[in-house]
User: Fold this.
Amino acid sequence: DAGVIQSPRHEVTEMGQEVTLRCKPISGHDYLFWYRQTMMRGLELLIYFNNNVPIDDSGMPEDRFSAKMPNASFSNLKIQPSEPRDSAVYFCASSLAYGFEGYTFGSGTRLTVV
Amino acid sequence: SQQGEEDPQALSIQEGENATMNCSYKTSINNLQWYRQNSGRGLVHLILIRSNEREKHSGRLRVTLDTSKKSSSLLITASRAADTASYFCATGYSGGGADGLTFGKGTHLIIQP
Assistant:
């Protein structure tokens, strides 16, 4: 398995533009998570899905953020409109439910909003 | 907050020495995990210890859990330059353990050659 795949690796966009981050979880994993990492706040859980259904989105900072998981092999996180304070590294992770032994993280998307 | 907190924030040791990092948390947990993050990369799962376990080993890693003190420690023995990274503890609260983990701010470990 290629692991959790995120795209793009880097994204530079202008304030006000829409940004879409993509994630392909490990096949067979029941859970998918979106985290954001900044120096100031560390790793923050934004939202997570179980069997493609959003379970907890209380970490989504504002209505400008939305996430979908249309099928078991794909999720996206959208920011519209983007702001400079959204600049961070966004990670996607997936895990099993049964026999849980930890998360597998993707390599992240470094987002810079100028 | 249910967030785990690592201590120290930064640690610098000589290659070959042992490195010990600590994690404290505030509420009851189902499991506690340690992850490593190399600069510019994603987190890598190292080890998971469940609330009914007290100690676990994996290669050069030893993790302990004291639920009465709400703390855990990660020991890396015979450190190598490749162990230079940030180490995070993460706590899980639900029965199955897979629901959203809460991460600490991490310990930045530097191994001097």
About this structure: Chain A touches chain B through 27 residues (CB under 8 Å). The radius of gyration of chain A is 13 Å. The CA atoms of residues 34 and 41 of chain A lie 15 Å apart.
